[in-house]
Write a sequence for this structure.
């Protein structure tokens, strides 16, 4: 803004402070982002960053970057990461450990499953990087009419309803098998 | 574009000694329509840094949810339909309040139905102040329902009296220009009685496309054995984005069983990217009364019915 000239612009922000988390779920983990709204100077270099910490077997719901490439660098622990390209082919399905990185191109869907306290930092090539999740309360499937889902996947209305409404979380969930009932206190939005 | 520092490979593609009229070079057929595109490696098209395609959706055809890594602008050449798009983080503001089977048909159901209807009508702005107050009610109601949903899970939905809710659905018709941002999935259904023809330009040299200069299409659903849009190198079959995941992971993410997760991958589906909808396409949409009155005015059928129709 006007009150900041380039000389006095802030150039750093600590995103490791738990109190600063943008997304937080007890016993699952937290995610903190920094973008041009957080530090205006990022607008000039068109870059942003996201810090993630997963506990136990937590999972980041499948998603894709809408307007950025992502470089995901592991700072702690280990996770299984799968990446799918525009042809629907699996282009990566590996474990990522401390000190390793993965390139996730724009639009490629990916999922991160922590195997033991996975921590990472992601750099994104857009000052206002946006994601679109494929599961969960704000997902693409949730935004589609049931009629679209039944016709697109040739499934019944009831099945479409399950796909659309079963997952209530937005970003982080616990990777458990199938349809176990979920305790409400785990759903902290 | 050169002054903007166009990447070298595009730069040397600009030998424009003579131009010529271009026809589509490839066609991808689907169950209820086809996709025709011009080869984006053609020097003239490559110099412009774009990729162009024509989408033809037959009557009752449905173009499956798709998104691109580049911005897109389209023009509706012929026909009419409805289109929806996914903008992450936006609320599901369209609510289908048709009563469900087995659902309580009592007063409470009616009241919610009306409230739902009014909510929708509210969006048409027909009821003024009252709408504002009802809109608020609608939102509270919706949140109330969300809250209930969270606590009692899916089996409660039948009693809550709404069938579905989703993001905005719009009417499209010939003459419309449609803009799509990268990463925002959209779908189109032909509601007219003739083919819906849409010509689209994908701006692959736009800075918002962070990938290479090939048009990349991402499908949320469907499977096309004939391959994807984008010239010869895309001839391998194009599957939907869920196809590449381990079904177990999809099942965990969506909290469904693995069999249903496998169905989402459309592995057995060879209908292509434009499928035929069997039976009514029950997606709630606002009425289109004003537009079509003016339409009839422009194309009067038979003698004027009343003096003001002259």
């Amino acid at each position: 803004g006007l009150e900041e000239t380039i000389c006095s612009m802030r150039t750093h922000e600590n995103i490791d402070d738990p109190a600063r988390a943008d997304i937080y779920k007890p016993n699952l983990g937290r995610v903190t982002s920094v973008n041009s709204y957080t530090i205006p100077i990022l607008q000039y270099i068109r870059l942003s960053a996201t810090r993630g910490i997963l506990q136990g077997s937590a999972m980041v719901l499948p998603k894709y970057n809408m307007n950025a490439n992502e470089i995901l660098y592991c700072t702690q622990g280990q996770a299984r990461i799968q990446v799918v390209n525009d042809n629907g082919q699996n282009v990566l399905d590996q474990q990522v450990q401390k000190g390793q990185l993965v390139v996730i191109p724009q639009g490629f869907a990916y999922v991160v499953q922590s195997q033991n306290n996975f921590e990472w930092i992601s750099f994104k090539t857009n000052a206002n990087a946006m994601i679109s999740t494929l599961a969960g309360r704000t997902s693409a499937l949730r935004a589609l009419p049931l009629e679209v889902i039944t016709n697109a996947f040739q499934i019944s209305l009831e099945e479409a309803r399950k796909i659309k409404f079963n997952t209530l979380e937005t970003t982080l969930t616990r990777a458990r098998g199938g349809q176990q009932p979920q305790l409400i206190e785990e759903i902290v939005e | 574009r050169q002054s903007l520092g166009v990447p070298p490979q595009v730069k040397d593609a600009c030998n424009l000694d003579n131009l010529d009229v271009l026809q589509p070079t490839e066609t991808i057929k689907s169950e209820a329509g086809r996709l025709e595109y011009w080869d984006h490696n053609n020097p003239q098209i490559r110099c412009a840094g774009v990729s162009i395609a024509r989408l033809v959706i037959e009557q009752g055809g449905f173009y499956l949810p798709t998104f691109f890594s580049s911005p897109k602008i389209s023009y509706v050449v012929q026909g009419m339909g409805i289109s929806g798009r996914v903008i992450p983080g936006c609320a599901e503001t369209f609510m289908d309040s048709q009563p469900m089977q087995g659902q309580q048909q009592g007063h409470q159901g009616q009241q919610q139905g009306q409230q739902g209807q009014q909510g929708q009508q509210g969006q048409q702005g027909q009821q003024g102040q009252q709408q504002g107050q009802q809109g608020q009610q609608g939102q509270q109601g919706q949140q109330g329902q969300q809250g209930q949903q969270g606590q009692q899970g899916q089996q409660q939905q039948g009693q809550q009296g709404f069938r579905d809710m989703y993001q905005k659905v719009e009417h499209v018709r010939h003459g419309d220009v449609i803009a799509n941002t990268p990463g925002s999935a959209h779908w189109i259904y032909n509601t007219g009685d003739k083919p819906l023809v849409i010509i689209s330009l994908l701006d692959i040299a736009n800075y918002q496309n962070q990938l290479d200069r090939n048009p990349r299409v991402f499908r949320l659903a469907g499977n096309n054995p004939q391959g994807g849009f984008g010239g010869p190198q895309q001839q391998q079959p194009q599957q939907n984005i869920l196809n590449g995941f381990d079904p177990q992971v999809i099942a965990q993410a969506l909290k469904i069983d693995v069999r249903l997760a496998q169905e989402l991958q459309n592995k057995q589906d060879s209908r292509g990217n434009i499928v035929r909808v069997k039976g009514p396409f029950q997606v709630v949409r606002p009425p289109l009364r004003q537009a079509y009155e003016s339409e009839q005015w422009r194309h009067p059928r038979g003698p004027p019915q009343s003096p003001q129709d002259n």
User: Anything to note?
Assistant: Chain A is about 15% helix and 40% strand. Chain A touches chain B through 70 residues (CB under 8 Å).
